[in-house]
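Q&A log
Question type: sequence-to-structure
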Amino acid sequence: LLGFEECLESTEILSASAEKLRRSLLIDHFEDVHSESRKVSEVGKWHSGGTPSRGNGDFWGGSIPWVSPKDMKVSELDSAEETLTEEGVEAGSKLMPQDTILIVVRGMILAHTFPVARTLVPASFNQDMKALVVSDEYRPKYIQYWFEYAAPRYLRLVSESSHGTKRLESDKLFSLSVPKPGLDEQDEFIAQVDSARSAVDKSKERHAAMVRMKRHFLETSLTS
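Response status: OK
Response body:
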């Protein structure tokens, strides 16, 4: 058991160190001096989502993911808890292409978290979110990482509506600027952050495996 606890502690330290490195890479890059920048409103085309009628069964249960804030627990999305048919998308939402950036702009989650994700498949989304199709000047993942870097700043811009819901108004969303390095520099930066993120994921997987091994050891020992 002591050995398990030592391994669990070491994987926690490793995960924290890798996450600290990832965050440092974001800060070092985006807070460096860049010769060009673009307003957030100018980095691509923005879209608003919606919800088709719940009373029409022809709109729901299709093959198209319909993303809502409850799905925004991961940084890359290839599915959602709910799905729409093509008729449902046309009736109340929008179909966005792969590599669209999704952010939550309304909901109580904005009290403490600024969810950002990139779609791996075409998907639709609801009215509590904004979708961004990035322009040719940027790599989608570069913009995704910029929003992750800017999350603390955006949380400070969140306001409260009259009925208590947290929201990020469009003028505040568009108030910040994004550096615009060349695509080669963007690619190099993305590779560095991806490497750090991979280290974070692997250390978390190792930690979870150790938890399972410890549980199995205890169950086996107590029943033998």
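Response note: Residues 60 and 84 are 4 Å apart (CA to CA).
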